[in-house]
Amino acid sequence: MRERTIASHFVCAALRGAEQQGLDIVALLAGLNIQPAVLNEPRARIAPEQFTRLMQRVWDVLVDEYMGLGRQRSKPGTFAMACYTLIHCPTLEKAWTRGMLFYGLFPDAPTFSLRRDGDSVWLELDDSNLRDPDHFLAESLLLIWHRLGSWLIGQRIRLLEARFRYAEPAHSAEYDLLFPAPRGFAAERTGLRFQARYLDMPLLQDERTLKQFLKNSPADLLARPDGGDSLTSQIRRLLGRDCNHWPDLESVARQLHTSPQTLRRHLREEGSSFQELKDHLRRDLAIYHLGRDNLAIQDIAEQLGFSEPSAFHRAFKKWTGLTPGAYRAHQDA
C-alpha cells in the first residue's frame, strides 16, 4: 500500500488557496522537486511523501492549516492543540466531542457533528463556511477526523458508507483509497457512517505517543492511502510487488473464493478491470522506484515485467504524461 501514488487533481486542489492568494505556484513546486507539469497533466502522479511535504509547505507559506480554503485562517498548531485537549478523554465519543467543541470556539470554522442512526453513527461535516471549489478541504477534514479516530483507539474504523453533498467528480475512482466504502453523491449531507460501537472504545494513546504522531500529522494522514477491504485493494495485495510472477486472474479468483466470471463482473461494477489494476500497480511501483532507488531505468523496466526499456518508456508516458527519465531527473534536481 505504501507505493500508492497521488493523482494530479489533489495537487492542484491543495494549491488552490495559495493560487487564489497570488503565490508563485511553479516556484513552490520547484522547491519541493515536483514537476510543474503535474498542474497541466491530468494523468500525472506524485509519491505520497511528496504530497506530505507539499501540504506542510502550503500550511507554512499561508500560515493556515485550512490552506486558504476557509472563511478564516486556522493558525499552525491549532490541530495539535485540539489533539492535546482530547488525548486524555476516556472514549472515542468523548474525544471527538471535545475536539468539536474546541474548533467551535473559532468563528466560521467548519463544523462536525455525530448523529446516531440505529446501530451506526454518522460523522457529518457542515462545509457551508468553506471557500472550497474542489471540495478538497472538506474531504481532507473528513479523512483527518476518521484517521485520527482510528489512531486514537488503535484500530481502523471500518466505514459503512460515505456521502457527499456535491455531484460525483471526474476523479471519483481515487476515492477507493480515501473512503473505502459504498459512496453516494448529491446527498443531503456530507459524512461518513460506521458502527456505533467504535464510539465506546477507550483511547489507547497518550501525550507521549501523541508527540510522535504530530511530527508529520495531519499531512501524512492525507497522503497515506487506505484501501480498506475493497476488492481492488485485496487484489493489489495478492499481486504483490513481483511483477514477473504475478498470479493470473483465475488464481486470484480462487484465492478470493469466487469464480473468474464473478470477479470480472465485480471489477466492472467498480469501473475497473484486472488488466487496469495491474497497470496501475506497475505505474505506482515505477514511481516508487524512480523516486527512491539507484536502479537504472532498464533494471526498473525488467523488475516491472517489461521485456524492453522502450515498452516501459511508452507505458510510463501513457500513465503519467512524462518519460521515466524526465520524472527521475526532476526528483534528483
Can you describe what's shown?
This protein has helices at residues 8-14, 16-20, 25-30, 48-62, 78-86, 92-103, 136-153, 175-178, 207-213, 219-223, 231-239, 249-255, 260-269, 274-292, 297-303, 309-320, 324-331, and strands at residues 6-7, 45-46, 111-117, 120-126, 159-163, 183-184, 190-195. With 333 residues, the chain is α+β, with helices and mostly antiparallel strands. The protein has three domains: 6-62; 78-200; 229-332, Homeodomain-like (Arc Repressor Mutant, subunit A, Orthogonal Bundle). Helix 5 packs antiparallel against helix 6 and helix 14 (274-292) runs parallel beside helix 17.
Brief overview, please?
This protein is of the alpha+beta class. The protein is globular. The mean pLDDT is 88.
